[in-house]
Design brief:
A 4-stranded antiparallel β-sheet has the order 6-5-8-9, with no helix packed on it. A 3-stranded antiparallel β-sheet has the order 1-4-7, with no helix packed on it. A two-stranded antiparallel ribbon has the order 2-3. By secondary structure, it is of the alpha+beta class. It is 30% helix and 30% strand. It is rod-shaped, with a radius of gyration of 59 Å.
Length: 246
C-alpha cells in the first residue's frame, strides 16, 4: 500500500496539496477500470457478431449437405428397388378384391357345341359286290352299264354307309364321314354333306375299296358346327361301326 501512495505523491502535479484519501483513490481506480472495459467492448461485440454469422453459415451449409445426402440415399433405394440387378428385389404388391374376369370371345367367333345325345344314331354299313362302278344320279355310285366309263379302271368293292339324321344341318353345320380299312391304309375314304340336311332325312355315303383288301373295316360319322365369323369348328360324334371285309 505504501508503494502506491509514494507513486501518487511523486505523480502529483501540485506537491503542496495534501494527498487524496484512500476512498478517492479506490474510486478513481474503479472509474479507470470501467472506462477501459467500456472502450474494449465495441471490438469484442464486433468479434462476437462475426463469430455468430460464421457459425450460422456453417450450420446452414451443414444442414444443406445433410438434406442432399438423404435425398441421394432415397433415390438410390428407389432405383435399387425397381432395377433387376443389384440390391434386394422388390416385392410386388398383390391386388385384393374380386379376381379379374376372362375376356369373352367376340360374338360369332366360337363354334356352338352340340351334345352327343342330340345327334347320336345307329349306322348301317353295307358291302356290295366287287365290280366297276360309275357316277349315278345325286353323286351316288352305281354299277356301270355298257358303254359307261367307270370311276376306276380296275374292279373295286362298293361300301355304303347310311344313317338317319337326327338334327338338321344348315350353312354353318354339316355331317362328315370317314371309312378306313385296317389292312389297306391307302383305301381310306372321307367326305361330307354339301347341301342343307333336314332332321329325319336318310343319308347315304359311298366308298370304293380295293377288291384285294381284307380284315377290318371301320366307319364313323360326326356332326360339325362352325362359327359364323371364324374358322373355329366343333365336332360331335354321331356314331361308329366296324365290320370285317369278306
Amino acid at each position: 500500500m505504501s508503494n502506491v501512495m509514494e507513486r501518487l505523491r511523486a505523480g502529483n502535479p501540485e506537491p503542496g496539496c495534501d494527498p487524496p484519501s484512500i476512498e478517492i483513490v479506490w474510486r478513481r481506480l474503479e472509474s479507470e477500470r470501467e472506462v477501459a472495459a467500456g472502450s474494449a467492448s465495441p471490438d469484442r461485440t464486433a468479434r462476437l457478431g462475426v463469430r455468430r454469422r460464421t457459425l450460422g453459415r456453417l450450420g446452414l451449409a451443414l444442414a444443406s449437405a445433410v438434406a442432399l445426402g438423404v435425398a441421394a440415399l432415397a433415390v438410390a433405394l428407389l432405383a435399387g428397388g425397381h432395377s433387376g440387378s443389384g440390391g434386394a428385389p422388390s416385392v410386388p404388391q398383390q391386388r385384393t378384391g374380386a379376381p379379374a374376369r376372362r375376356r369373352a370371345a367376340p360374338a360369332g367367333t366360337v363354334a356352338p357345341s352340340v351334345s352327343a345325345g342330340a345327334v347320336a344314331t345307329p349306322l348301317t354299313l353295307r358291302m356290295l359286290a366287287v365290280g366297276r362302278y360309275c357316277n349315278g344320279e345325286g353323286m351316288q355310285l352305281v354299277a356301270c352299264r355298257p358303254g359307261q366309263r367307270p370311276v376306276n379302271a380296275h374292279p373295286e368293292r362298293l361300301v355304303q354307309l347310311s344313317l338317319t339324321a337326327r338334327r338338321s344341318a344348315e350353312p354353318h353345320s354339316w355331317y362328315a364321314w370317314d371309312i378306313e380299312a385296317s389292312a389297306c391304309p391307302q383305301a381310306g375314304r372321307a367326305g361330307a354333306t354339301l347341301e342343307p340336311v333336314r332332321a329325319g332325312a336318310r343319308l347315304t355315303f359311298d366308298a370304293l375299296i380295293p377288291a384285294g383288301c381284307r380284315g377290318r373295316l371301320s366307319a364313323s360319322v360326326s356332326y360339325v358346327t362352325q362359327a359364323p365369323r371364324a374358322d373355329s369348328e366343333h365336332e360331335t360324334l354321331v356314331g361308329r361301326r366296324t365290320v370285317r371285309l369278306p
